[in-house]
Amino acid sequence: MFGSSGIRGIVNEEVTPELALKVGKACGSLYKKVVIGNDPRTSSLMIKNALVAGLLSCGADVVDIGLVSTPTVAYSAKKYDIGIMITASHNPSEYNGIKIFNRDGSGISLKEAGRIEEIIRENKEKHVRWNEIGGYKNEDAIEEHINGIFADMEGIENKMKVVVDCSNGSTSNITPYLLRKMGCMVITLNAQPDGYFPAHDPEPVEENLHQLKNICRAENAMGIAHDCDGDRMVVVDKNGNLIENDKLIVVFAKYINARNIVIPVDSSMMIDDYVDARITRTRVGDIFISEMLKKIKGDFGAETSGTWIFPSFSYCPDGIYAAAKFIKMADEMDVFEEVKKLPSYPIKRGSVKADKNKIKEAMPKIEEEMKKMDFVNWIETDGLRAEMEDAWILIRPSGTEPKIRITVEAKERRRVEKLWNDVLKMVRRCLK
Ligand code: MG
Description:
With 432 residues, this protein is an alpha/beta fold. The protein has helices at residues 17-30, 44-57, 70-76, 110-121, 142-153, 175-182, 210-219, 245-255, 269-274, 286-296, 319-332, 335-340, 356-370, 413-431, and strands at 7-10, 33-38, 61-67, 82-86, 95-101, 136-138, 161-165, 185-189, 222-226, 233-236, 260-264, 278-282, 300-303, 307-309, 347-353, 377-379, 384-387, 391-397, 403-410. The strands form four sheets. Strands 1-5-4-2-3-6 form a six-stranded mixed sheet, with helices on both faces. Strands 15-19-18-17-16 form a five-stranded antiparallel sheet, with helices on one face. Magnesium ion (MG) is lined by residues 70, 89-90, 227, 229, 231-232. Magnesium ion (MG) binds at residues 70, 89-90, 227, 229, 231-232.
């Protein structure tokens, strides 16, 4: 039921009001004070209301903070037992999901999720009597989140023009206001929450950022884009180029003088070459990054997809905090010049669609094929990563969608192309 990003699936097929009710009852049986929020998807209120009914029926008090970003729920969670967010993050309109946060802002572990699943599976919900049903109220949490970030950041010296693409998601009510408060001149883009995502799918990747790039060029402004729920943040320069997140990882790590960083297995080997810090690689998924950061007392975590974790503030990947941090950094130094100094090792990322059972059957065959290759290091923390002297390959089933993700990186272009073609053919063969 729970994956690395909580519960996620197609609405009214996998993610139903019935399921939400069960999750609500299970959470209400375990926790007594719950804060809940939602993104603007067409199904979010349906899922949230079912979940709230479950919580109340098992005696939990619920504070509903309404349409908010995921990091806002995570930030608010410190005053409650848990925070629950209704969102499918960057997935298209037909998806929705449930993500649960600890008080420290990290997503709950798979073990904690297992406790919730067990209650559901074994019908162990603790319904309460009529006079013990939980209380429900609405509250605003956005201002507190803004003030919390601002207190850490304060204003900027130089006037900066910034275009913010909110992807019609729930950062519309926070990032533009925060950056204005810091002293930026903000131009908003797709900042009306709309679950149909009329502008583009709410994933901040190259093919969805044409509008932002054009406006950045036209306005001679830098750009920031979020996914639907705001745990991701990416940057576009004044020439309309999307900054590679792996390069931003290096620049952020240097700026905050990070000594002990955590990144996922699909991140570039360029980071190892240019960051002078201890680097730990984990499974892909922010909960694993947070878990490792806590375990090794790390001071910075990030993912290639554009999630940024600054443990001094929160263990939640907070795209809004990251946006403010980026602005602060751009105020103090020429960030884009720093980015230019870093090489781009050619990298290819892609995926092959297949149903989940097919993928399960294919993975051992893929492993066998990969082990025939000439590798020097083998990592199995998440999927299969074979490292060679000048390249690496990662093949792993997606945690949220029915596809196998493939990443190939090498120091030379021709090597990547060759490896990519070989690997793609091999994966397709194994899926047959
Ligand atoms: Mg997200």
